[in-house]
Amino acid sequence: VGKKIWWPVFGACTLMRTHEDWMLIINRGHFSQLKIGNDTVVVLTDAAAVKELMDKRSSTTADRPPSYVAELITDGLHMVLAFTPAWKTERRASAAILTPQATNQHLPIQRAEAIQLLYNILHSPQSFYTDIQLYSLSVIYSVLHGRRLPQYETKEVTGFFTVMQEWSALLEPGAVPPIDAIPILNLIPERWAKWKRDCKRVRDLQRARYFGLVEETRERMRRNQHNGSFMEDVLERQAELGMDDEMAGWFGGTLIEGATDTTSSYIQSLVLALIAYPEAQKKAHEEIDRVVGEHRMPTLEDLEQMPYVRAIISEADAPIPSHRPPWCTPCNPGYRGRGIFHDPALFDNPEDFIPERYLLSENGTKPGVDGSDLRPTLSFGFGRRICPGMYLAQNSI
C-alpha cells in the first residue's frame, strides 16, 4: 500500500481511504487481514472459502458491520444494513412478494420498457448511458408502484440519480472520518462536520421520494384504483407482514435503489464490453438472427436456443461486479466478487471478455478445473443475504 503511515491505534484507517486502496488488498491473494480501529477485517477472494462461510454458515455470517452514516440516514431500516428484527421483517416481506411467479406477471412491463430502450438507443445512441438508467428506474417504478417514467430529463428521474450518487458517495471508503472504527468521532457537532449535514440532506430527499410514492399508492388504493403493483400487495398485507409505515417506506426505497443501480450498471457494462469486443457482438447478432429472424423481438423463451447470448450474459457479470457492503461476524470478514471472478487459477485470461469460456464449462472455469464452488447467481450474493429481487433483475437483463 506504499509508504502511508500505519497508526498503532487507528490501524489501517489511514490507509484504506480510496477504492484503489481496497483493490490493492483484494488483489493480494485469497485471504487478507487488516486492522481497522478495534475491528479485524478479513477479505476473502476464494470461492470455496466464501461458499463455506457465506452460504453454509449463513446463520452466523449474515450480519453487516455497523455503519453510522447509513443508520443516520435510514434509521437502520435499509435492507442492506445490520441483521436486525426490522431486517428480518423486510426480508420476509420481500420473499413473500418477489417470488418467481409474481415477478413473471410483470414481464409485459419489462418487455415494453426494453422496446422503449431500444428505440431510444436507435434514435439517440449518444445518450445510451442515461437511457439505460431510465429503463431500469422505469421498470421498478412500474412494477413497484404502477407508474412508468417516460423521459430521463425530468426532475423526478434526474433527482433520483443525483441523490443516489450522493448517497453512494457517503458510503465510499474515506468519504467520512473513520467513525465506525472510532465511535467517539460521532460526537463532533454538526456545524463542524459537513458529512453530517450531507447525511441530513440525503435523508430528507430520500424520505420525501420514497414515502411520497408509498402515500401516492395508498391514496390510489383508497379511491379503489388498483393497478396490481407490488406495493399494493405490501400495503394490503402490512399487518400480516409485520411492517409499519416507516418500514414500508424504506422497504420500497431499498427495492428501487437495488433494482435501478445493479441492473443499469450491468447493462452499461455489457454495452461497453460489446463495443470493446466487436467480434463477440457480431457472433451474438448472428445467433439472434438465426434463432429469431428479422421480423420480431427476442423473448425469454428464445434464450434456451441461444447459448452464445447466454454466455455473453454470464461473462458480462464477471469483469465489474456490483459493490457490496462488507459482511459481519464476530471476526468481521469482508467479501468482494471481483477477486473470485478474476482468479487465474479458475479462469483463463480473467481480465479479458471471453464469452466462449461459458460454452466450455457451466461456470466459465478452465476445462478440468473444479468450479463447483461457483454458481450462475454468484453476483446476487450468498446465503441469507442473496438479493431478494434476483428474479426480477434476471428478467430485466
Automatic annotation (TrEMBL):
It is a single-pass membrane protein. The keyword Metal-binding applies. One of its GO terms (molecular function) is iron ion binding. It is found in: Membrane. Belongs to the cytochrome P450 family. InterPro entries: Cyt_P450, Cyt_P450_CS, Cyt_P450_E_grp-I, Cyt_P450_sf, Cytochrome_P450_fung. It comes from Mycena albidolilacea. Its cofactor is heme. Pathway: Secondary metabolite biosynthesis. Heme binds at residue 387. Keywords: Glycoprotein, Heme, Iron, Membrane, Metal-binding, Monooxygenase, Oxidoreductase, Transmembrane, Transmembrane helix. Coiled coil: none annotated. The keyword Heme applies. This is Cytochrome P450.
